[in-house]
Specification:
alpha/beta, UDP-N-acetylmuramoyl-L-alanine:D-glutamate ligase, nine-stranded mixed β-sheet, 13 strands, globular
Length: about 325
């Protein structure tokens, strides 16, 4: 994988969105299909921004798995590291836009999902060690054997530059917040960059206060700590200082995927060597664009779209 810039690790799903604003599951008759899962969306977003991206995950040996592979390929994402599980079904995620900024999600991942079945046989040590940027979604560590596999990946990586842990906490994936905190907290010890919202920071480092959470992340050896604060903007901290970038107002159509667009743009900024201020400003714009659209993966913006939004805001 020497030609790959970005490797993301974690869940993938087939997402089905209620095809009407404000629709409830019990009322809606039509759903729009796309692929989803946070690390999958980040890989798509990074690809849209010009980076060769791959995702390490698994789908079922079923028609939805066929669709997920075809959709990834259509977005230009390398599917070499997408395995097939012969017993578990490709996960589904249904979204009702009630309300649009915080849609109601229902996951179908029982009794488990193929992406939780990643083993050490699914990884190539050289690829993990040598890829320019490794992005790990903490939700991927909720079950074994994926947890041990990702812990091994972080050990192989040995905190190389651009080892990103997305604190990505989904309560329904974990047996308890305490278990999540212990596992995600351990993953931070292998990261050079950590990114999460207030709730995710509280789970990972025990504080939902942005400044305190950032300080705790830095104290664990992270070089860049990013705390997303919703309407209050984004805090980015390094050992050299802290910056707060205001939120970008937008009329929200669907809040799903905005954080993943932020992640893909953050990847772009990291690989481009930008300052924390510049990369977070860019990432905020990417997130705003996706929040104004219905889908996740399909909605990820191009560099032209982000540049145009930033230019309009500056004028």
């Amino acid at each position: 994988m020497t030609s790959t810039h970005v490797l993301t690790v974690g869940r993938i799903s087939v997402d089905l969105y209620a095809d009407a604003p404000g629709a409830r599951f019990e009322d809606e008759q039509r759903f729009v299909k796309s692929i989803g899962g946070s690390p999958t969306n980040v890989a798509v977003a990074a690809t849209r921004l010009g980076h060769r991206s791959a995702v390490l995950t698994k789908v079922g040996a079923d028609p939805f798995g066929d669709y997920a592979l075809a959709a990834l390929a259509s977005f230009g994402v390398d599917t070499t590291h997408v395995g097939r599980d012969e017993t578990l079904a490709t996960p589904l995620a249904f979204a009702a836009l009630t309300p649009p900024d915080d849609p109601h999600l229902v996951f179908y991942r029982n009794p488990s999902a193929p992406d939780m079945q990643l083993t050490t046989q699914d990884i190539d040590d050289d690829s993990v060690r040598d890829v320019d940027l490794l992005w790990v979604a903490a939700s991927a560590m909720a079950e074994q054997p994926a947890r041990a596999t990702i812990e091994r990946m972080l050990a192989i990586r040995a905190r190389a530059t651009h080892t990103v842990v997305d604190l990505d906490y989904r309560p329904t994936f974990w047996r308890s917040p305490e278990e999540a905190g212990a596992v995600i907290g351990g993953a931070i010890d292998g990261a050079t960059v950590a990114v999460g919202n207030r709730v995710e920071c509280a789970i990972a480092v025990g504080s939902d206060d942005p400044a305190e959470a950032a300080d705790r992340l830095l104290a664990r050896g992270v070089g860049l700590a990013i705390v997303k604060m919703g309407a209050d903007g984004v805090l980015a901290a390094t050992p050299g200082g802290t910056v707060v970038v205001p939120a970008r107002p937008v009329e929200v159509v669907c809040g799903l995927g905005a954080g993943d667009a932020f992640g893909g743009a953050l990847v772009h900024g990291l690989l481009s060597g930008w300052s924390p201020d510049a990369m977070v400003t860019y990432a905020n714009a990417a997130g705003a664009i996706v929040a104004s659209r219905l889908m996740c993966a399909d909605a990820m913006p191009t560099t032209t779209e982000i540049d145009d939004l930033l230019a309009t805001a500056a004028s």
